[in-house]
Amino acid sequence: MQSSRSFHSDGASKEALHCEIEKLKQKDLALDQETAQLLAEGYSLEELEKHISLLHEYNDVKDTGQMLLGRLAVIRGVTTKELYPEFDLELAD
């Protein structure tokens, strides 16, 4: 027999999942609309897919660079921020 507490918890979990699903559906719709807008502006799907692929590659390289800066900062006993000028990086980089 399920206690009222676990029932309430399961209900709350189901509600949270339902909300998350709805948010993802809305995000999917917004992305579809954005894609349609870009296509209407003359971009091709292949061009958009290539752009997305390049953005993923850029983010992977940036993440790797951040990880290396973090490790170097630990070795030197400084903050990552302190290394930025040495490598001509801006904080927004």
From TrEMBL:
| Keyword DNA repair appears in the UniProt entry | yes
Which Pfam families does the entry mention? Swi5 (PF07061)
Q: Which GO terms describe its cellular component?
A: Swi5-Sfr1 complex; Swi5-Swi2 complex
Write the record's keywords in alphabetical order, separated by commas.
DNA damage, DNA repair
Q: Which GO terms describe its biological process?
A: double-strand break repair via homologous recombination
Recorded hits in InterPro entries, A to Z, give: DNA-repair_Swi5
Protein role: Component of the SWI5-SFR1 complex, a complex required for double-strand break repair via homologous recombination.
Return the similarity comment.
Answer: Belongs to the SWI5/SAE3 family.
Q: What is this protein called?
A: DNA repair protein SWI5 homolog
Native species: Sphenodon punctatus
Q: Which gene encodes it?
A: SWI5
